[in-house]
Amino acid sequence: MVNPIFHGDRAPQRHMEAYQQVPDPQPPHRQDADAYWADKIAEVMRDQFGIKPKVNSYSYRTPYPPAYDLIPLPNRYKVLDFTKFSGQDDTSTMEHVNRFIIQCGEAANRDELRVRLFSSSLSGSAFTWFISLPPNSVITWADLEKQFHKYFFSGVQEKKITDLVRLKQRNDDSVESFVQRLREVKKNAIVWFWMIGI
């Protein structure tokens, strides 16, 4: 009896087709050779083993719409070296936002420009936070400001209205130092009330 798979020293025709290789045309330039062979290897891995090679597809996308980058700055506007917020010092988020808007000047008149320029006022972990926001998660200035306060707001420094009531002038306090302490507590109490929505 003749074995249907092997007849003599030759494999049957249907198995030979799987192993026949048609020479692929080589890419004309040497610099294309690496990409060509990478594609061929990926194709073999995918076809023979069902393995899909990992594709490095990460590219940074802003958290705001790409169209914001196309909006021109005001005529003769020069982008400033903004005061930086890192989230590591005792600068409050309210203080930083207000300083940023003042420094923006004429550009602060457009929501889109405020959103676009805001990252220029961040450094360290605050900048890392900004670039980690998902694409298109910030549409308006209010969106960005809300997310910024929510992430960096620290209730440790802010005071409550009861702290104002309890504040008393000490015997060794001058009027000036007491008024200064009162102003600080009041400022921080206002920030706290603004953050909780009162």
Description of the molecule:
The chain is mostly helical and 198 residues long. The chain has two domains: 59-154, no CATH class; 155-198, no CATH class. It is 48% helix and 0% strand. The chain has helices at 13-19, 30-49, 93-104, 111-118, 124-132, 141-152, 161-166, 175-196. The protein is elongated. The termini are far apart.
Please tell me the overall pLDDT. Answer: 76
- End-to-end CA span: 95 Å
Unreliable spans are: 191-198
Helix/strand/pairing class, anyone? mainly alpha
Largest sheet: none
Radius of gyration: 32 Å
* Oligomeric organization of the protein chains: single chain
The tally of structural domains comes to: 2
Short description:
The protein has 198 residues and is mainly alpha-helical. Helix content is 48%, strand content 0%.
What are the main properties of this structure?
2 domains; disordered C terminus
Walk me through the topology.
Elements: H1 13-19, H2 30-49, H3 93-104, H4 111-118, H5 124-132, H6 141-152, H7 161-166, H8 175-196
